[in-house]
Predict the 3D structure of the following.
Amino acid sequence: MSREPSIHDRQRHLVHAILKKLIEKLRGHGTAEDAASQRDFYLFKVLRTHVLPLTNCAFNKSGDRFITGSYDRTCKVFDTDSGNELLSLEGHRNVVYAIAFNNPFGDKIVTASFDRSCKLWDANTGHLCNTYIGHELEIVCVDTNPSDGSNIATGSMDRTGRIWDAETGVCLHTLKGHGAEIISLQYDTYGKYVITGSFDNTVRLWDVRHGRSIREFIGHTGEISSARLNFQVSVY
């Protein structure tokens, strides 16, 4: 308090009370009022609309909509607050396994399927914008370029990743180098790099512009099930 001129001696009791409350929270001994506020977290809704098990779900950036993928070969769009089904995206011929909004924009939805194709949909109308075909086996992970949405990355059981031009559907690069299935991938913040995780026990960092592996991370002794990048700092 002696170093902070804005805190006067008459406020000493208030500062003590605030500090005491913070200490209690850190120790896990909150007041009855705190316990009541924690009860604000509760089961909001249970939605049962797919006829077969779900494979994945994802929110748009604002959180007012979310999507689900299913073994019933569809992706459904829901309103978060009401739980109402807004759209059913139908067109895949096998399991819809990986799904994503093109966040932060949220006006498009990407679906990837065991039918070896990836599809781009209008998130507001459900219109099919494009289909990306080229993988030889099931597609199990997908992500969109967060900087401008200009390209889409897919990972497959065929041991490759692909970078697609979102508008034309052209495959810009095939990411080759993993010795087993690619089951996780993600763009960095600026859309310049993609990270992939594989059942070959390694992670690779790729230059999206050239489709080149620029770094390999080795150390796991078993299959890698997920790999994520820090969105606050781009990886180089």
Q: What stands out?
A: Residues 37 and 165 are 47 Å apart (CA to CA). The chain has two domains: 9-38, 54-218.
